[in-house]
Design goal:
about 450 residues, alpha+beta, five-stranded mixed sheet, four-stranded antiparallel sheet, about 15% strand
């Protein structure tokens, strides 16, 4: 398996290799365009001075060799050849001393030779520094009515001086340190990614307790922080899911057992009519309870799906809330609760079915968790382009910690508040209001009661 570490190192080395190649090509181009001409001109000037001394100062043939030998000792490589092909080398010998016949003939005929010819030979920069006679400049030389060809270039060893060796060593050291540094930094970079990979495997196996030991202030540190938050949320969701399954299983099992038990009793032909009606009523209530639970589960599943169809129309909110109060009148009387309201006439363009679910859940919550002989107050008003609704009860209230979690799915404060509930009601309320571009907040104090405030923006204003 190809690891990220190997791929990263390979990529760095590939980039380094490409950079060296591009740099070498650019250096060749710069040398060809700028440097080569200047170096050739300098060598040509030296060669012209030597030819001038030998020709104009009337140096005789026997004196040529000592003079050229002294020039060679000054750091030049000289190659002197006559028409008969007799050649003499002064200074450091050439490793390659073979010249094409046509080149030699052109110089003897009076033409100048300016170094390597041909596109590829010129483009290859390092070839110009090799100890090759083709890297010389050549001039014709006439002494005592005898023609010579004089080829000259600076000594190759002088071109590569100590400063060049130091520069080359510096470049090699930089390259070595760079590669080692890249390897170390890559290892340091890949280690937390490997640890995150192990953590994801643990989560895939439903182990939410894996501890990440990543303390960084960069993007990987942010990724680790986000991963920890995801891990905590998944752990919470897992606990909530298991709790929800237990609660729903119990909530389904209890009414089903009641329905089964009372249905068996109803099969008794000797049962009197009064008991039969009583047992039938219990079966009906339990069936209604199951139906309500199923509706809540279906609704919250539908809300989870993207693109939930919203069917908007104009609604009188005050009338809709009054209808909801009427439906719960029997519960209010059964708990001996009083209710009052201040509902302004408010028209709102929204989904009436979803809003009815919101009012039913908020009112049910206010009734269920109210104090005996308690009170409920509902208000509805418009403030410029906002519609504000409040549901206030004198119930048992919530702690600050519970108030922050009450809209979470499947959340229940404690075992005393599991009556006829699944922990889905307020979660459904929150999702519907968010879907309708509204907001909901609450204020609550233990043993004092809770107030839910719903705010919608009237889109038509």
């Amino acid at each position: 398996m190809r690891t990220l570490y190997r791929e990263f190192i390979s990529a760095i080395l590939l980039i380094l290799g490409i950079s060296v190649f591009i740099g070498f090509v650019l250096a060749n181009i710069v040398y060809l365009v700028f440097t080569k001409g200047e170096m050739t001109e300098q060598n040509l000037e030296v060669a012209e001075q030597i030819v001038y001394v030998l020709e104009e100062m009337h140096v005789e043939s026997p004196s040529i060799q000592p003079y050229l030998q002294s020039v060679g000792q000054l750091g030049y490589q000289i190659y002197l050849v006559d028409r008969a092909g007799n050649a003499i080398t002064f200074g450091q010998p050439f490793e390659k001393s073979s010249l094409p016949d046509q080149t030699l003939e052109r110089v003897l005929q009076g033409e100048n030779y300016m170094g390597k010819e041909g596109f590829w030979n010129q483009l290859w920069m390092m070839g110009h520094f090799s100890n090759d006679i083709r890297n010389t400049v050549g001039l014709p030389l006439q002494i005592d009515d005898q023609s010579y060809a004089l080829f000259i270039k600076p000594n190759s060893k002088i071109l590569f001086s100590d400063i060049h060796m130091m520069l080359a060593g510096f470049i090699v050291a930089i390259a070595f340190v760079s590669v080692v540094g890249v390897i170390i930094m890559t290892k340091r970079l890949i280690h937390p990614i490997s640890e995150l990979s192990e953590a994801t495997k643990a989560i895939a196996n439903e182990d939410f307790t894996y501890t990440l030991k990543i303390n960084r202030q960069d993007e990987i540190g942010q990724l680790a922080d986000n991963f920890l938050r995801m891990q905590q949320q998944l752990m919470h969701n897992d606990v909530a899911r298991k709790s929800f399954i237990n609660n729903v299983s119990h909530d389904f099992q209890s009414p089903l057992m009641n329905i089964q038990g009372y249905a068996e009793l109803l099969l008794n032909p000797k049962m009197d009519e009064k008991e039969r009606l009583q047992y039938a009523g219990i079966v009906n209530d339990e069936a209604r309870r199951l139906s309500n639970l199923t509706k809540q589960l279906l609704l919250i599943t539908s809300l989870d799906q993207s693109g939930y169809p919203i069917k908007k129309s104009c609604i009188r909110l005050d009338l809709q809330i009054k209808e909801s109060i009427k439906k719960h009148q029997w519960s209010l009387q059964d708990r001996n609760l009083t209710i009052s309201y201040k509902l302004d006439e408010v028209m709102f363009f929204s989904d009436p079915e979803l809003l009815a679910t919101v009012w039913d859940n908020l009112l049910t919550n206010a009734i269920k968790y109210n104090q005996p002989n308690g009170h409920i107050f509902i208000s509805c008003s418009r403030d410029q382009d906002q519609i504000i609704l409040t549901f206030q009860d004198s119930g048992v209230g919530l702690s600050e910690e519970s108030a922050g979690q009450v809209f979470e799915r499947f959340f229940r404060v404690d075992t005393t508040r599991k009556r006829d509930g699944t922990g889905l009601g307020l979660s459904i309320v929150k999702e519907i209001i968010t879907l309708l571009n509204g907001s909901i907040t609450l204020e609550s104090k233990l043993s004092k009661g809770t107030t839910f405030t719903v705010i919608f923006r009237d889109e038509r204003n």
